[in-house]
Design a protein that fits this description.
Elements (H helix, E strand, L loop, with lengths): L9 H11 L4 E7 L8 E7 L5 E8 L7 H17 L7 E5 L9 E5 L4 E2 L6 H16 L5 H4 L5 H5 L10 H4 L4 H11 L10 E3 L8 E3 L2 E2 L2 E3 L2 E3 L8 E3 L1
Length: about 240
Amino acid sequence: MNETQHFLSPETCHALLMEIEPSSTFVRVRPMGAQGTHPAFVIEAHTARGTARQLAVKCYHSNLGPGSKRARQEFKALQMLQKYDIPVPAPLYLDEEGTLLGMPGMVTSFVTGKQVMRAPDVLGYAREMARVLVQIHAIPIGSAEKEFLPDANPENLWFRNTGVIPDYMINSLDGLFVWETIERLLPTHQPVPPTFVHTDYWIGQLLWSRAELMRYSIGKRPVMATQPMTWPMVG
């Protein structure tokens, strides 16, 4: 696979299964279907006992930075989140250099759910998101985490690099207001202790079951699938 084909062959899927669960049998592979920046697929398989098994595969373009770095960051972030019982997919396999996938990527657990773009109960959904976000922000950040998590401040202010407001902000209804507010408040910014943050945390990045974030169990650990997954940072 390369960055223009966006395809996983049955041979590649079989090789991944041999790395993750050697006794399983490959059934088929399909595009994940969620709208995202990077190619994503679902591998369907059967375990040795005949149980259906689904794995999520995400590959990383290099148009937003080195794909190997992004794959490593997200995989290690998922490992850290699971350590603190945050409901996320289980990280299963990291192909940092694209040895099997043909481009950098990783494999995680997968759960079927619904990607919601507009909440029928805005306040209820906001409360549920806030509940999980509090857990995310409570994760302690030390020197080990700082080594692989990017700094959210410069990453999220990339649109200021030229020093001129971008055309898309000028043409946006609130673009000029946002630009002027940022320029006014940035000089007053005071550093705070580092915190784990999710810089694209919105309703469409999460899977839902009614008004609750979609969960299922791997052993005793609850997990939540995000489709597509985003770039966690320290801020």
